[in-house]
C-alpha cells in the first residue's frame, strides 16, 4: 500500500539510519512515521536479505530531491500566491467596508439584474484565475513526458471554449458552471505516463535492491511490482518477457514513458550479455532522479512569468469588476439625485 495515515517526518528517517549504522535490527516497515518510500525500501531489503544501509541512503536521497523541488516551487510561487490570495479576498473585504465608509448599499447592487451579471462574470474570472494558478503550481512538480505534457493544457482550452459556447447559448450560469468544471478536471488530470515515470524510478531502485539480495532478474522485477501497484502490470509484463527472452516488448503497453523504455532496454542488454545489472540500475535510478529534479527546477524558474497571465487576465479584472462596479453604480445614483 502506498498511503499512510500519519505525516512522514525526516526525524524518523534519520533515526532509522542511525540504528542501521549502529548495527541494530531496524524494522522500518513497522514504523508508520517513515515516508512510504522508505517503508517499501526497508521491507524489500529485509525480505531479500539485501544490504540495508545503501538502500536506505538511496531512498533518503530521493526524498531529499523531492523536498528540494518542493522548496524551489514554494520560493518561485510565494509572491504570486500572496497576490492571488489577496485578489480573491479583496471583494469580500472591500465591498462591505467601502459601503460603510461611503454610506451606500454596495451589496444591494448585486441583487439587481446588472449586479447579478457582474457577480457571475467577476466570480467566473476569479474562479478560472484561481484554478489556473493551482494548476500551474501542481503541474510543476509532476514528471512530464513530451507526448503527454500538453494534455492538461488542451483540456483547459476545451473547457474554456465550451464554456464560452454555453455562455452564449444557455446563459451565464451554464457557461460559468461548465468552464469551472472543465478547469477543475484539467487541474486534477494526470497523464498515465507521468505516473509511470514517477514510479519506475523507484521500481528501478527496488529491483536493484532485490538483485543485491540474490534474486534473479525476473524475480527482482516482480518484487518491485508487488510494492508499486501503479506500474505492477508493466513490471510483471517485463518479468515475463525476460523469462521468455523478449523484454523489449514491455514499453508497448504504456507508450510515452521514457523511464520504462530505459529500464526495459537496460535489462534486455544485461540479459543478452549476462552482465551484473544491479550497479547499472542504481545509476539509472540516480539519473532518473536527477533528470526529474532538473525538469522541476527549470519549470520553477519559469513559474513567476507563467503565473502573471492568470493574475493579470483573470484575477485582477475580476477583483476590479466586483469592487468597482458597485462603487460606480453608487456614484452614478448619487450624481443623479
Low-confidence stretches: 1-8, 143-158, 164-170, 186-194
Query: What's the helix count?
Result: 11
Based on helices, strands and strand pairing, what is the structural class? mainly alpha
Strand tally is: 0
% residues in beta strands: under 5%
The pLDDT mean sits at 75
Which SSEs are present, and which pair or pack?
Elements: H1 10-21, H2 36-48, H3 52-102, H4 113-140, H5 151-170, H6 172-188, H7 192-212, H8 217-227, H9 232-244, H10 258-273, H11 278-336
Describe this structure in words.
It is built from eleven helices and no strands. The protein has 337 residues and is mainly alpha-helical. The protein has three domains: 38 residues, no CATH class; 145 residues, no CATH class; 97 residues, no CATH class. α4 runs parallel beside α6, α7 crosses α8 and α7 runs parallel beside α10. The longest helix is centred in the last third of the chain and has 59 residues. It starts with 9 loop residues before the first helix and ends with a helix. The N terminus is likely disordered.
Summarize the structure.
With 337 residues, this protein is mostly helical. It is 77% helix and 0% strand.
Notable characteristics:
3 domains, 337 residues, disordered N terminus
Amino acid at each position: 500500500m502506498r498511503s499512510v495515515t500519519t505525516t512522514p517526518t525526516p526525524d524518523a528517517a534519520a533515526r532509522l539510519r542511525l540504528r542501521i549504522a549502529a548495527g541494530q535490527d531496524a524494522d522500518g516497515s513497522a514504523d508508520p512515521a517513515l515516508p512510504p518510500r522508505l517503508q517499501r525500501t526497508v521491507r524489500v531489503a529485509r525480505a531479500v536479505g539485501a544490504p540495508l544501509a545503501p538502500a536506505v541512503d538511496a531512498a533518503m536521497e530521493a526524498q531529499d530531491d523531492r523536498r528540494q523541488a518542493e522548496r524551489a516551487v514554494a520560493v518561485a510561487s510565494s509572491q504570486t500566491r500572496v497576490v492571488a490570495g489577496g485578489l480573491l479576498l479583496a471583494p469580500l473585504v472591500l465591498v462591505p467596508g467601502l459601503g460603510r465608509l461611503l454610506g451606500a448599499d454596495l451589496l444591494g447592487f448585486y441583487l439587481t439584474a446588472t449586479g447579478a451579471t457582474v457577480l457571475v462574470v467577476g466570480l467566473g474570472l476569479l474562479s478560472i484565475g484561481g484554478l489556473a494558478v493551482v494548476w500551474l503550481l501542481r503541474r510543476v512538480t509532476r514528471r512530464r513526458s513530451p507526448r503527454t505534457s500538453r494534455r492538461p493544457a488542451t483540456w483547459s482550452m476545451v473547457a474554456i471554449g465550451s464554456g464560452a459556447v454555453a455562455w452564449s447559448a444557455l446563459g451565464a450560469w451554464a457557461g460559468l458552471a461548465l468552464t469551472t468544471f472543465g478547469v477543475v478536471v484539467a487541474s486534477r488530470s494526470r497523464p498515465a505516463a507521468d505516473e509511470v515515470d514517477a514510479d519506475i524510478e523507484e521500481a528501478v531502485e527496488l529491483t536493484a535492491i532485490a538483485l543485491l539480495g540474490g534474486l534473479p532478474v525476473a524475480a527482482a522485477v516482480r518484487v518491485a511490482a508487488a510494492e508499486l501497484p501503479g506500474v505492477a502490470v508493466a513490471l510483471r509484463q517485463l518479468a515475463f518477457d525476460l523469462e521468455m527472452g523478449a523484454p523489449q516488448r514491455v514499453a508497448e503497453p504504456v507508450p510515452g514513458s521514457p523511464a520504462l523504455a530505459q529500464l526495459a532496454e537496460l535489462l534486455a542488454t544485461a540479459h543478452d550479455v549476462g552482465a551484473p545489472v544491479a550497479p547499472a540500475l542504481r545509476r539509472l535510478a540516480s539519473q532518473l532522479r536527477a533528470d526529474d529534479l532538473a525538469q522541476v527546477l527549470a519549470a520553477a524558474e519559469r513559474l513567476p512569468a507563467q503565473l502573471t497571465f492568470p493574475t493579470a487576465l483573470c484575477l485582477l479584472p475580476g477583483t476590479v469588476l466586483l469592487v468597482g462596479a458597485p462603487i460606480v453604480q453608487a456614484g452614478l445614483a448619487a450624481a443623479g439625485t
